Amino acid sequence: MTKNLDPTKSNLTTDQGAPVGDNQNSMTAGVRGPVLIQDVALLEKLAHFNRERIPERVVHAKGAGAHGYFEVTNDLSHYTKADLFSKVGKKTPMFARFSTVAGESGSADTLRDPRGFALKFYTEEGNYDIVGNNTPVFFIRDAIKFPDFIHTQKRDPQTHLKNPNAVWDFWSLSPEALHQVTILMSDRGIPATFRHMHGFGSHTFKWTNAEGESVWVKYHFKTEQGIKNLTADVAEQIAGENPDHHTEDLFNAIENGDFPAWKVCVQLMPLADADHYRFNPFDVTKVWSQKDYPLIELGRMVLNENPANYFAEVEQVTFSPGNIVPGIDFSPDKLLQGRLFAYGDAHRHRVGANSHLLPINRSKNDVNNYHRDGAMRSDANGGGSAYYEPNSLGGPTETPENKQASFEIHGVADAVPYDDDDHYTQAGDLYRLLPADEKTRLIENIVAAMSPVKDEQIKIRQIGHFLKADPEYGARVAEGLGIKI
User: Where, in this chain's numbering, is heme bound (predicted)?
Assistant: First the structure.
């Protein structure tokens, strides 16, 4: 065995642990001869280099992340039996990843785009993920429209350029997008940093307590740094000077001990209220009024440790809204229901069937099941234990007390739309709440974004949605585009 004579240095090895004698010169046939295929260290190095990039995320490709903790500050255990919320003072380690949605991994951090707000809590009962955004709503409310929507945000297959015609054609034909479009085009469309934005679980979930009683719940993460946004001009300038501005800001803040924090609150709705609330509470294009369901403090989230390696942690971390723990269940939100499959499936494709074994994704409690084999299986693979269930060999069995809470359903199985087509009230309310200067910037941003659209009918159709939300809103956009209404 080769010994390292200098204890301050480590030996360079191949992936199999064999020492590398020369990492500066390829093995050749003579001083000027061709390279030999027997230089296995060279072959391994080049082959690994060719495979250093896993497929980037289709959405949320550009992002930054950090480790931290969640601490309970208010006892809500009478609403949920989830262990991480069980008592005041309980701390749960976690990892957060913030991201833009549409841009590639090399795109600028300051694009006008929603920001992903994905959280992984390493609880004693398994990993719990909240996979949300910095907005409480989204553009669509049915997963069947998601691939088409994302196609409009990506590059045109012929020109390989961003296509404003596709963006506004889709939005103008999808009036449910208006609420999120209004948020996106407002000041909130470009956060100053990842630290200076709120986060939201966006979807409706269900909490269930130890007695089997349930409530509907929405998550809110209120930044303790205060809200700060960028104007379009400043964002464009920063994109040219430092496209990694948000990534750098988060890293430097934590490195300097300025740990970002968020106050965590929830809205709770009795199950029965969902049947008669004035908006469909499971429609992710709508919000619950905080006058009807006030924010209730739950805890505090703090990020206090940077990743040691970006690829191993930020790039390989996988999130799914399907990663839940006892005491937390799903709602019939149609977009959420689609995400329960799509996110896990995306990671099985992107990182691999055993991505849950990577340190950043591994749960802190033992994993016991009958899943076996697959590429990159890095644990004992079940050893010689039982590999099927049911069995009489003492293998792990289900725990009925941890079944998801039941809920009543009714109706005919069919492909049907949501039963609420009011796409304008909340968008109009938001417009009317904005101060005069923010309204002006909203209009300017929309006009700038729609001006490149070549099809006049798309502009007219979209203006019709703005008019229905608020007459002044639509009139000002029309005037900015030079269209008479």
Answer: 343
Active site annotation includes 60: yes
pLDDT digits (tens, 9 = 90+) for 382-436: 899 988 888 899 888 888 888 888 878 888 888 888 888 999 999 999 999 999 9
Query: What's residue 1's pLDDT?
Result: 41
Place of tokens 């049947």: 275
Q: Is 226 exposed, middle or buried (0-12, 13-18, 19+ CB in 10 A)?
A: exposed
The gap between the terminal CA atoms of the chain, to the nearest Å, is 83
Q: Please name which of 134, 151, 143, 140 lies closest in space to residue 96, comparing C-alpha atoms.
A: 134
Q: Is the pLDDT of residue 4 over 80?
A: no
pLDDT of residue 307: 98
Segment 8-27, tens digit of pLDDT? 678 888 888 889 899 889 98
Catalytic choice (67, 127, 133, 229): 133
In the block, tokens 């596709």 appear at 166
Specify the domain boundaries for CATH 2.40.180.10 within the chain: 63-159+175-180+188-364
Query: How far apart are alpha carbons 230 and 236 in whole angstroms?
Result: 9
pLDDT band at residue 7 under the 50/70/90 scheme = low
277 is in an annotated binding site: no
Distance CA 352, CA 427 (A): 40
Query: Is the CATH number 3.30.360.10 carried by domain 63-159+175-180+188-364?
Result: no
Q: What is the pLDDT of residues 132-188, one digit of tens each?
A: 999 999 999 999 999 999 999 999 999 999 999 999 999 999 999 999 999 999 999
Cis-peptide, bond into residue 390, ω within 30° of zero: yes
Is residue 374 scored above 70 in pLDDT?
A: yes
Determine which one of 11, 25, 50, 60 is catalytic: 60
Where in the sequence of the chain do the CATH 4.10.91.20 domains occur?
16-52
Q: What count of other Cβ atoms lies within 10 Å of the Cβ of residue 372?
A: 10
For residue 462, how many other CB atoms are within 10 A of its CB?
26
CATH code of the region 16-52: 4.10.91.20
